[in-house]
Write a structure and sequence with these properties.
- The N terminus is likely disordered.
- The longest helix has 48 residues.
- This protein has one domain.
- The protein contains seven helices and two strands.
- Strands 1-2 form a two-stranded antiparallel ribbon.
Length: 179
């Protein structure tokens, strides 16, 4: 029985090591996504269109037509969910969501360093960035966000972005609050 206990301990260590490597790979992927995001913004800014809206379009417009549809937003949110679901269990735990928040914060800090980023609305719950928060997406209030919760909130978040209500998000949907 003692030998079996050692085997079990070795198995547990192997499993823990595997999960650590998996999380490390995903975190490296996250860093890559953030870096690509910043590079995409830099290329847009270099074209004279540098603002948060241009940054958003460069990262979310899958077919590169200058607009983001609800379908594109849903697909991108699905990709984001998979990236941050470190254990692939279909749920973002508070720890996984914290990693997501850190990546978003780093991305926005890079934009602000370049003099970009929105001036913001006074009510944080009306800002488009609020639609990516744990509070917004945790519909059942259990502290975790399931894939279904995250994707089901996409239309509400998209409506926050689509300020003119035309069913498309463009760079013009960003900027100072309108009257």
């Amino acid at each position: 029985m003692g030998l079996r206990g050692i085997d079990d301990a070795n198995t547990n260590i192997h499993i823990q090591t595997f999960k650590y490597e998996e999380i490390t790979v995903k975190r490296n992927a996250i860093a890559g996504v953030c870096a690509l995001s910043v590079l995409a913004f830099a290329s847009v800014a270099g074209a004279g269109q540098g603002n948060y809206g241009s940054h958003f379009i460069a990262n979310w417009d899958a077919d590169e037509d200058g607009t983001v549809t609800l379908e594109e937003a849903t697909e991108k949110r699905s990709d984001i969910f998979v990236t941050f679901d470190a254990d692939d269990d279909g749920v973002l735990t508070p720890e996984e969501y914290a990693a997501f928040d850190e990546a978003r914060k780093a991305d926005m800090a890079d934009l602000k360093k370049g003099g970009q980023g929105g001036a913001g609305m006074k009510d944080p719950k009306k800002r488009p960035s609020y639609g990516m928060t744990l509070e917004f997406n945790d519909v059942d209030g259990d502290g975790n966000v399931s894939r279904d919760e995250f994707l089901d909130r996409t239309p509400d978040w998209f409506a926050m972005l689509d300020r003119n209500g035309d069913g498309l998000v463009t760079a013009e949907d960003f900027g100072p609050p309108r009257n």
